[in-house]
Amino acid sequence: MGTWWRGTALVAERGIVESIRSRTFKVVTGILLVLSVAAVVVPQMLRSDQTTYTLATAGPTPTGLVAALDAAGRAADFTVRYETKADVTAVRQAVRDGDATAGLVGDSLYTSMASGTFPIVVAQSVVALETSRRLMEAGLTPAQIAGIQSVRPPQQVDVGRVEDARSVVGFAVGIVLFLALTFAGNTIATTVAMEKSTRISEVLLAVLRPSQALVGTVAAVGAVTFLQLIVLVTPLAVAVQVMNDVELPPVAGGDLAIAVVWFVLGFALYAFLFAAAASLVDKITEVGSATMPVTLVLTGSYLVAITVVAANPEGVWGVAASLFPLTAPIAMPVRWAGGLVPVWQLLLAMALTVGAAVLLVWMASAIYRRALVITGRRVKVTEVFRSGRRA
């Protein structure tokens, strides 16, 4: 067994060294690093430190309203700029042209589609001031009025789905996993087909077992792909720790950790299928058609994750897709980000995927072992299994 692992490690080491030295690896890794850094830097460049709203009024803005809005701005981190217009027509025109966020004339509040939530703040301030005035006229003291206005609304408790920000993280994880598995699978298939078509595999099989060559190749591509994923997420992780204004949803860290586990499981599930399919070809140009069934299954898993699971994560089909081994590596991370998945379902999905991966590794190894020595033509899967039964 020790000899088997040494031979496998040599194949993996050879594959890792060749991949890191290749121009393709350097270009792809550089692009991933640039995209990751841009995802952190660009939003910081575009965002404004503080939002400024403009309130237009016909005549001077009441002192009480200015004080109320300024206090609200300090609490919610925005500022208000006040503009005095000649009449109501000028106020309406300023709001219509976008020169003012909202306009206030008497008991009329003028807004537009782009006003956002600021008019609500203005309306609440006006109501609070008018309520105070009427209570004072009714004989209440300022202390009594302050006591009435200090009554807090009921505590809001969110019992619905997780916040949108975390759902976005889950959706992004699904996309990254799909792209990583597709890229790694195609790389494995190309490597296997190239070694077979150039007869390199014959040299390897002269001193190694087929399982050593297969596992070593898969491990090398997996290590390189995992390294590129680290390059992709490291700038974001560093930015979250260093910069105070870059935040992830509270549970996003756990989501990313689970995504790493699912990448390993999904890679073990699909990598050997790509390798087995590529071992059937005789020319490297046939790789695309040979691996098409595996690619279709992987693409189907992605489509299920972003449609069925994202739309109705607690539906029957959403739950089934997150548990079925071939779709779980992509569907479960998306569904898990919804915040309503029981832990036992997550563990069950992982266990089923591990079992399926072990079965597919055994099956793929058998195909790889028998098809790799057949050259000069493309091999059919049925032919491989028939030769296995005769053997």
UniProtKB/TrEMBL annotation:
Its main location: membrane. Keywords: Membrane, Transmembrane, Transmembrane helix. It is found in: Membrane. One of its GO terms (molecular function) is ABC-type transporter activity. One of its GO terms (cellular component) is membrane. It is a multi-pass membrane protein. This is ABC-2 type transport system permease protein. The chain crosses the membrane at residues 27-46, 168-192, 213-236, 256-278, 290-310, 346-368. Residues 60-364 form the ABC-2 type transporter transmembrane domain.
